[in-house]
């Protein structure tokens, strides 16, 4: 295998993004004084997902996604709000929500750091992601931090990985491997970049896509059997 660099997705791979998102949602609802009886996180989650899928199809810009998802969410509550301001409030809640590691992550990081150069490869807004990562000691493990927002490209695009390769020069694609929970973002991204992939299927879901990871694990403890 001979890998030299392990790329690590952040949200829902190293940390529990669902936990942070729920906290951010209620932070937003509190700021806008939405009664508990009216709140519907699952509805917001569907609206949010639909908007990001539209973005991936080039039907919406990123700015439109960040704003419109909240305009639509609050419309269900009979409220008209400024989507940009709501997004800022939500992201503040996201950035300050206490980080919850997935089980086994810290041990896995210790193990990987002893053998490889590590880098974070995350889709997200730079200011928010850096504030969240700053809550942890993650930067003591990694040599590079790649955030789509400041790169001008996001997973699964080939451009994202070309930037990674140009930042970490003198290596070949077969020197890299990426670990991530998302088939469509992390695994397809790795395939587009020509590198091996490890699908962290911690939710134990069926892979009903044509996307085929090089390896699949269900827990972080299994990392040592592959790398």
In summary, what is this structure?
By secondary structure, the chain is of the alpha/beta class.
Ends distance: 8 Å
Beta content comes to: 5-15%
CATH class of the largest domain: Alpha Beta
Series of H and E elements: EHHHHHEHEHHEHEEH
> Going across the major beta sheet, what is the strand order?
3-2-1-4-5-6
Shape: globular
Contiguous uncertain segments of 5+ residues: none
Specify the CATH architecture of the largest domain.
3-Layer(aba) Sandwich
CATH superfamily of the largest domain: HAD superfamily/HAD-like
Q: Please give the domain count.
A: 2
CA gyration radius, whole angstroms: 18 Å
Overall pLDDT metric: 96
Helix coverage percent: 40-55%
Task: From the 3D structure, determine the CATH topology of the largest domain.
Answer: Rossmann fold
| Number of extended strands | 6
- Given helix and strand content, the structural type is alpha/beta
Q: Count helical runs.
A: 10
Please give the largest β-sheet: 6 strands, parallel
């Amino acid at each position: 295998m001979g890998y030299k660099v392990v790329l690590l997705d952040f949200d829902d791979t190293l940390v529990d993004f669902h936990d942070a998102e729920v906290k951010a949602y209620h932070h937003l609802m509190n700021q806008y004084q939405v009664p508990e009886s009216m709140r519907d996180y699952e509805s917001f989650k569907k609206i949010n997902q639909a908007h990001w899928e539209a973005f991936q199809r080039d039907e919406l810009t990123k700015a439109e996604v960040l704003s419109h998802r909240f305009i639509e969410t609050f419309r269900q509550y009979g409220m008209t709000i400024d989507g940009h301001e709501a997004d800022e409030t939500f992201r503040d809640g996201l950035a300050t929500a206490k980080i919850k590691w997935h089980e086994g992550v810290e041990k896995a990081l210790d193990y990987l750091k002893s053998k490889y150069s590590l880098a974070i490869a995350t889709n997200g807004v730079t200011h928010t992601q850096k504030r969240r990562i700053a809550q942890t000691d993650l930067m003591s493990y990694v040599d590079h931090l790649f955030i789509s927002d400041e790169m001008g490209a996001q997973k699964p695009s080939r451009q994202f990985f070309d930037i990674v390769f140009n930042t970490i020069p003198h290596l070949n694609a077969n020197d890299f491997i990426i670990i991530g929970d998302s088939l469509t973002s992390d695994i397809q991204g790795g395939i587009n970049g020509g590198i091996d992939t490890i699908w962290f299927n911690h939710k134990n879901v069926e892979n009903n896509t044509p996307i085929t990871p090089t390896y699949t694990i269900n827990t972080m403890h299994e990392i040592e059997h592959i790398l």
